[in-house]
Write a structure and sequence with these properties.
The protein has helices spanning 2-21, 75-83, and strands spanning 28-29, 38-41, 45-49, 67-69, 87-89, 92-95, 100-103, 110-117, 122-129, 132-145, 148-158, 161-165, 168-178, 181-191. The chain is an alpha+beta fold. It has one domain (27-191). The strands form two sheets. Strands 2, 3, 5, 6, 7, 8, 13 and 14 form an eight-stranded mixed β-sheet that branches. Strands 1, 4, 9, 10, 11 and 12 form a six-stranded antiparallel β-sheet that branches. Strand 10 and strand 11 (148-158) form a beta hairpin.
Length: 193
């Protein structure tokens, strides 16, 4: 009898400890039509170069500033969005409703952006730069927390090159524009913890 009681107590202790270690993983969905349009930080810096390695972004010339948007824009629309809500703090130029930024320094200017989403699994953000239009395709998954939908980036692909992926920090990307061609290279990457 005593052995049965000890066995039952040990079994109860094991069950209790096992339930304490269990972590509820959120349930993820590939689409979320209820979420509507949104933007989310790309978490990657992009430097643009010409064929000679010269910086294509000039802080004193807004025509050289890259612009991310959910669709391809006309030249008039580009000029409007680049001049919309320009806010300059020390070495950072925010513009296009603060969804685009240029960080100057270290000899070249780094471009940071927000990518678009709309509740679908994949969404395209168009990058207008140096007279051409590139695209970033972002793959999302969604979860619900307290009855509210939240997007999470899984992967970003810039003109067929993966520039960001969950679990890997591609902190910097170099894009070279030469002779009508665009070359995308990962400059810095680290495994995320």
């Amino acid at each position: 009898m005593k052995n049965q009681v000890i066995f039952l107590l040990l079994l109860l202790l094991c069950i209790t400890m096992a339930s304490c270690d269990a972590v509820d993983e959120p349930e993820y969905y590939s689409t979320a039509s209820e979420i509507g349009e949104f933007t989310i930080t790309a978490d990657v810096g992009i430097r643009y170069y010409d064929e000679n390695g010269n910086d294509l972004i000039k802080t004193d010339n807004s025509k050289t500033w890259p612009l991310a948007y959910k669709k391809v824009l006309t030249s008039d629309s580009l000029a409007y969005y680049k001049s919309d809500s320009v806010h300059i703090t020390s070495d950072v130029f925010h513009y296009g409703d603060r969804h685009n930024a240029i960080i100057s320094g270290n000899g070249t200017n780094k471009y940071e952006l927000y990518v678009c989403g709309d509740g679908s699994e994949k969404c395209i953000t168009y990058i207008h730069v140096n007279g051409s239009v590139d695209k970033i395709e972002t793959t999302y998954r969604y979860t619900i927390v307290d009855r509210k939908w939240y997007p999470e980036k899984i992967k970003m692909v810039y003109n067929n090159t993966v520039i960001w992926q969950k679990g890997i920090d591609y902190s910097e990307v170099a894009v070279t524009k030469a002779n009508g061609e665009t070359k995308v290279e990962i400059v810095s990457q680290n495994l995320q913890k």
